[in-house]
Amino acid sequence: MIRRAALVAAGLLLALAACDRGRPPAGFAGPAAPALFEIAGPGGAVEGWLFGTIHSLPGGVSWETETLADALAAADVLVVEVRDLEDGAALRRAFERRAYSAPRPPLAERVPPSLRPRLESLMAEGSMPAGALDRMETWAAALTLAQLGQTGKAENGVDRALVRRMGAGAVIELEGAGAQLDIFDRLPEREQRDLLAAVIADLADRQAGSQGNAARWYRGDIGQLADPATSAILADPELRDALYAGRNRDWAGRLAAMLDEAPRPFVAVGAAHLAGEDGLPALLHRRGYTVRRIQ
Fold first, then answer.
1. Of 36, 67, 146, 177, which one is least surrounded by beta carbons within 10 A?
2. What secondary structure letter does DSSP report for 134?
């Protein structure tokens, strides 16, 4: 563990030094402070950490800090939502196995009439031919459209960087790609259509919103990420429970079991999952842990 800890810390600090040489993208100036929490047990001993990630970033963003490097080096295992993010072919296969089923109405007929012009505009902006998503299940079309709102690149995602540095042998996944997609696939069609409508609505301000969310993540301002007022998806009670709060409850149970064992986990999940009364810090606190923000 000591040798691996030294390598992890060195890797993080070298990456920090390399990124510091260039000019940061707009919105990412100043010191990085993405949300990092320390988890202590009833006796006060540190038993793990919670770190809020973001799944895509512009190039040249230096987000690593010494506090983060120290915590990661002290951990025994890395816990992420999905481990095999580098295997693009496997991820595509997992998506395609679930994304197509029996014939469905054209996608435009699955959204309210008021959103159809916006859907057509989004597909044109994304260079998608008319009808390109018609064969997809509604949830799959929604996720495909959601990709249009990303201003960063998935290869710059923080979770990917952490997995690379820890090595696959020291990584545990909370869900995996298949199980994560199954959550969407199991949604009733009514909720899938609500998801599609919410994605289209959220994409209305996608350029300002996406960059703004990434910049807020960089500064550690995670409160708005789980605020229903900032997301049509989180404002829908059924979608919020299925895609956010329910998953947090499941994760909190699994993490409590891990924390009771000897290995100390460094838990890296989307930053929104750390915010609010149904976020992981609050859920673990209610289970008797002391969760203290250290960055």
1. 67
2. T
